[in-house]
Structures are given as structure tokens and as C-alpha cells.
Specification:
Distance between the termini: 81 Å
Helix content: 25-40%
Strand content: 15-25%
CATH architecture of one domain: 2-Layer Sandwich
Number of helices: 4
Strand order of the largest sheet: 1-2-3-5-4
CATH topology of one domain: Translation Initiation Factor IF3
Order of helices and strands: HEEHHEHEE
Low-confidence stretches: 25-36
Number of strands: 5
Structural class: alpha+beta
CATH class of one domain: Alpha Beta
Shape: rod-shaped
Length: 120
């Protein structure tokens, strides 16, 4: 408001003033420093499956019967389910003449069909 605006205000005339804009509240983005739990679908062209129960392993070993190598990760199984899943996979590998290779501390397993080898 200038000088004349103050004079009009004293005389009782309101000047047309623009309404003040509301203050914008800025929010800061928060970032999680935790490692994301992204689950790869394939490792070196081999499909990775993540059963949560030992019964789900039965669905995945069908691929081995078809001659495809698979990786089973039991990271999402509870401790009892993990034991059962490992026992099932070992029994399946033995019965199907497949090879079961432990990749990660009894949590990730590569299952190769009969006659398939892995390059190291």
C-alpha cells in the first residue's frame, strides 16, 4: 500500500487489496535407507522361484521334469517350512536323477535336470 492507500484507509475507504496467498507447506521427501527386497525373476537365464510353504515346491519341480534348470529360494519360508522344503527338494532331486546345488547358506538351491551340467 502506498501513501494514498493509507490516506483512504484513515478516511474509512478500504482499498482493493489482493488477498494474500496461503503459504505453501513444503514437505520433505523421506527415503528409506533399508535395502529393497527386490526378488530377481532370473539369474543367468535360470528362473528363480520363491515358495513360502513346502507344498509350493511341488509346483516348481515340474519344470525340472520338463528339462529346465530352476533356482529355488527359501528366504520367505519359516524355519519349519524351510526344513520341509529342503527335504522335499533333496528327495525330488534324488528320485528324478537331478542335481541339487546349494548356492546360498541353505537358502537358495540350483536344481539341474538329469544330463545338464553347470559351468563354473
Amino acid at each position: 500500500m502506498g501513501f494514498m492507500g493509507n490516506v483512504f484507509k484513515v478516511l474509512g475507504f478500504e482499498s482493493e487489496s489482493k488477498p494474500k496467498a496461503a503459504k505453501k507447506v513444503q514437505t520433505k521427501a523421506t527415503y528409506s535407507l533399508k535395502k529393497t527386497s527386490s526378488r530377481p525373476e532370473q539369474i543367468d537365464g535360470i528362473s528363480v522361484y520363491y515358495p513360502e510353504k513346502k507344498e509350493q515346491c511341488k509346483d516348481f519341480v515340474v519344470f525340472v521334469k520338463e528339462g529346465k534348470a530352476i533356482i529355488i529360494s527359501t528366504d520367505y519360508c519359516g524355519s519349519e517350512e524351510n526344513e520341509g522344503a529342503i527335504d522335499f527338494l533333496k528327495g525330488f532331486a534324488l528320485g528324478a536323477n537331478a542335481r541339487m546345488i546349494t548356492l546360498n547358506e541353505n537358502r537358495m538351491f540350483l536344481i539341474l535336470p538329469e544330463g545338464m551340467e553347470v559351468e563354473e
